[in-house]
Amino acid sequence: MEIPVDIRQNNSLPLSEIAESITAIDLELTDKSLINPFIIGRIHLLKDYIIISDFTQILIFHRNGKFIRSIGSKGQGPGEYISITQLAVDEKNEYVFVVSSGSKIICYDLDGNLIRESYIFQDKWSIICEINYVNNELLIVTDDPRGKDASGLYSRSLVFLLDDKLQIIDSLSIRNVYFEIENGFYTKHANYITSLDSSVYLYYADLYSNSIEKILRDTLYRIDNNCLIPELKLKFKNNGIGGSGIKFIELSKIYRSSRYVFAAYGNSYNTTEFDYFYFFCYDTKTGNGYNMLEGYSDDIHQIEERKWIYPLSTNTEIFYYWHTHMKPGDLEEPNPTLYIGRLKK
Could you give all domains of the chain from N- to C-terminal order, each with its CATH number? Predict the structure, then answer.
């Protein structure tokens, strides 16, 4: 499927147009549950729990917003993390998997007890870019940005399947990319691996900037029998390179629900920085596409600023976003309110 994207558009897409329902949850503020909304990494829903991670902590709330506990601690010892770069949840066994500084994987139970941990790679340059627990399997996406052979420098990207002991039991190559100049690119909200029903999808933008490679990564793949099957493609004018004064476009994510296709991308009029950041939504039922500068309009809860929405990685029919509401008389900023929505089908 090819889906056209018109970067000249700036639509306003109210969330009521795509959402069947949206629930607001006020997250309790205590001296142990302070959330900085600017560094939230991932949010997971687990039965009666909400699990929120940022770079420094993992917090567990009840579905009604009441704070329960934090798990894990900062440090370099067993069961400790230096910084939290990714997080996944095994809903059946109620385990939380944490990637620390892109290299160590730690597994906790919901009480914060250490189950096991592992350094997957001894090579300090190999980076775990994503971890997700889908269809009863633990998958990670990795990038080795320091490869070198007769053709030059290259970045090698792979998907690994891990067993219950956090050891590699299978792998799938995504691609090798050759480049001349190192230029890192990373986003903590990329959602490289997502799941819908029993299907697992992969979108992976290289850690090394497409502005150097001059190729736009525009395809969402389905992982099937250890193969990457092209699922859909976003069609930009001139394949996202040049045209209309745009120097380059950088996609950070593509994912889909049963009805909608979503994407987020930046575009630039120079060669080094993004000038604008856009969100894109395509309705496969109506054939309508919406290109939105800076996000979606929340007409349900009457939030003025546009919001960025994120998929629940284990079920992309559900999305979430957050907003901090300051009331008259508030002396301190409260924790953000979490909004959980279900998409129309």
Answer: 2-343 (2.120.10.30)
Distance separating alpha carbons of residues 83 and 55, to the nearest angstrom: 5
Residue 183: name the closest of 214, 148, 218, 207 by CA. Answer: 207
Length of the chain: 345
Burial profile 75-98: b = 16 or more Cβ within 10 angstroms, e = fewer: eeeebebeebbbbbbbeeeebbbb
Plot region of 100 (φ>0 → left; ψ -120 to 50 → alpha; else → beta)? beta
Name the residue among 341, 330, 332, 276 with its Cα closest to residue 303: 341
Strand 227-236 versus strand 248-256 pairing type: unpaired
Tokens of residue 260, six digits:
């909608």
**DSSP three-state, residue 299:** coil
Q: pLDDT, tens digit, for every residue of 68-101?
A: 999 999 998 889 999 998 999 999 999 999 999 8
Which helix H or strand E contains 71, and what residues bound it? strand 67-71
Is residue 185's pLDDT more than 70?
A: no
Question: How many alpha carbons lie under 13 Å from residue 60 in its C-beta half-sphere?
Answer: 18
More confident residue, 233 or 121: 233
Q: Are 117 and 97 in contact (CB under 8 A)?
A: no
Q: What angle do CA 44, 115, 224 make, to 5 degrees?
A: 55
Any alpha helices (H) in the chain, and if so which ranges? 210-213
Give me the residue label for tokens 């607001």: 24
The residue whose two tokens read 């986003």 is: 187
Single pTM value for the model: 0.91
Which residue carries 């060669």 as its tokens?
271
pLDDT tens string 195-216: 999 999 999 886 554 445 567 7
